[in-house]
């Protein structure tokens, strides 16, 4: 009987269907990368095999923690990537810093005058009773950087009740573009992508943590294109493309 059971188990293993590898490379990417990353993907011979899910880095990282089938993660800050790495959810040796950005103040007024951001600049007065649009300050990287900058200015406590927090940086950009908020804090690349807003200031680099976009292959990924997708982002042609969209790139 034992011999028959062993034979039955072997036969079942032979006829059991083998899980299929997804035909698509699934990329989870920060919302601020959308325009540039879409353009980058169009340059790749495998473009029809790549699917991108955009969102806030925090939301995407939490989805990966819950087992979402992502192959590559591109974050808008290091902290969320650090957390996934600490939890063993990234493939060892695949993480690399790919891009940089700047934090800027945008206006809904196309003729808005440029200002210099300092600890003496009264941002509350510039709002004139309106709301300041920015990403959610506990999970969206642009919101996290924005809160750091406002804290550095000594104005976070006073401005917090007048902040319209959004699910990602592009939603904050949209509020200003539609005129629903007079001012917003976004990335320089977002301001460049939206003709209905005007960049009026750049926050000093010392006012917030460095804005770095790390990328890595997710540990559970078995897709053969995952590593090459990241590697290709570091080629001279890719760097030139991202630079054209306003990102900072390494030499």
Provide a compact summary of the structure:
It contains 11 helices and 11 strands.
What is the topology?
Blueprint: H1 2-15, E1 25-30, H2 34-41, E2 50-55, H3 57-65, E3 72-74, H4 78-86, E4 96-100, E5 103-107, H5 123-127, E6 132-135, H6 141-152, H7 156-159, E7 163-166, H8 169-177, E8 183-187, H9 188-193, E9 198-202, E10 212-217, H10 226-232, H11 236-244, E11 248-249
Helix pairs in contact: 3-4
| Topology order in helix (H) and strand (E) letters | HEHEHEHEEHEHHEHEHEEHHE
Q: What count of helical segments does DSSP give?
A: 11
CATH topology of the largest domain: D-Maltodextrin-Binding Protein, domain 2
Sheet with the most strands? 6 strands, mixed
Query: How would you describe the shape?
Result: globular
CATH architecture of the largest domain: 3-Layer(aba) Sandwich
Can you identify the CATH class of the largest domain? Alpha Beta
What is the overall pLDDT average? 91
What portion of residues belong to β-strands? 15-25%
**CATH level 4 superfamily of the largest domain:** Periplasmic binding protein-like II
Which residue ranges are poorly predicted, with pLDDT under 50 across at least 5 consecutive positions? 1-21
- Tell me the distance between the termini: 69 Å
* Helical residue percent band: 25-40%
Number of domains: 2
């Amino acid at each position: 009987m034992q011999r028959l059971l062993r034979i039955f188990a072997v036969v079942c293993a032979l006829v059991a269907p083998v899980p299929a590898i997804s035909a698509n490379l699934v990329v989870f990417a920060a919302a601020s990368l959308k325009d540039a990353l879409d353009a980058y993907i169009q340059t790749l011979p495998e473009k029809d095999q790549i699917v991108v899910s955009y969102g806030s880095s925090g939301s995407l990282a939490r989805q990966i923690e819950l087992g979402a089938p992502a192959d590559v993660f591109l974050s808008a800050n290091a902290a969320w990537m650090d957390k996934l790495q600490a939890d063993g959810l990234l493939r060892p040796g695949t993480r690399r810093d790919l891009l940089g950005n700047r934090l800027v103040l945008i206006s809904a007024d196309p003729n808005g005058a440029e200002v210099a951001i300092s600890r003496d600049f009264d941002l509350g007065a510039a709002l004139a009773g309106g709301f300041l649009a920015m990403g959610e300050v506990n999970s969206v990287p642009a919101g996290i950087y924005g809160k750091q900058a406002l804290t550095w200015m000594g104005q976070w406590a006073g401005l917090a009740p007048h902040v319209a927090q959004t699910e990602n940086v592009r939603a904050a950009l949209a509020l200003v573009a539609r005129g629903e908020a007079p001012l917003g804090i976004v990335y320089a690349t977002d301001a460049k992508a939206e003709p209905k807003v005007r960049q009026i200031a750049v926050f000093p680099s010392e006012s917030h943590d460095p804005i770095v976009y790390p990328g890595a292959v997710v540990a559970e990924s078995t897709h053969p294109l995952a590593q090459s997708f990241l590697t290709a982002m570091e080629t001279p042609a890719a760097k030139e493309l991202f630079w054209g969209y306003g990102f900072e790139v390494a030499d």
